Amino acid sequence: MTTKIIIVAILLCSIIIPFGGFLLSKKKEGGFKAALASNLFFFFGTVMVADVLLFSGNVHAAGEAAQVASSTEGWRYMAAALSTGLSCIGAGIAVASAASAALGALSEDSSIMGKALIFVALAESIALYGLLISFSILG
Fold first, then answer.
1. Spatial distance between the Cα atoms of 13 and 20, rounded to a whole number of angstroms
2. Cα dist from 50 to 31, 54, 115, whole Å
3. If you average pLDDT over residues 36-52, what whole number do you get?
4. Cα angle vertex 125, ends 94, 76, to 5°?
5. HSE of 50 in the Cβ direction (CA atoms, 13 Å)?
6. CA 14 to the chain's CA centroid
7. What is the pLDDT of residue 139?
8. CA distance linking residue 59 with residue 77, whole number of Å
9. CA angle 129–85–14, rounded 5-degree value
10. Tens of pLDDT along 90-111?
11. Dihedrals φ, ψ of 62, to 5°?
12. Does pTM top 0.70 for this prediction?
């Protein structure tokens, strides 16, 4: 139980510390990219350590069917979370660029609103596809 609490604390610190350092800095050029890179490094490093500590804790009972099933169940949940999370991040990036371009185009010609909404909806559908994949992974 204490290992899980320590891992959760490390995960929270790996998210808070890089962006806290960015927000408290003078916001010099490249500060956001450095904070994002360190955040990704610490976060995925902690996920790997958590995977080793939590999923492969009982190496001696690897031959039992129950242990194998619970290990597979953990990987299913991690795959579903990654498919949903990464697709939402991709959809956010796509919607940010498509919506800003659509607003710029709408300010010049208001007759293209339908076409602009289609492009924004296509970018937003990426998140829905990731959610459908995670539902199919979970069964």
1. 10
2. 28, 6, 46
3. 75
4. 100
5. 19
6. 14
7. 84
8. 20
9. 170
10. 999 999 988 888 889 888 988 8
11. -70, -25
12. no
CA-CA-CA-CA torsion sign (12, 14, 19, 21): positive
Helix-then-strand count for the chain, H and E: 4, 0
Looking up tokens 């899980």 gives 4
Neighbouring residues of 130: CB distance < 8 A, sequence distance ≥ 6: 83, 84, 85, 86, 87, 88, 90, 91
Q: Please, is 28 exposed, middle or buried when counting C-beta atoms within 10 Å of its C-beta (0-12, 13-18, 19+)? A: exposed
Among 98, 135, 136, CA closest to 119: 98
| Joined tokens for residue 39 | 């955040």
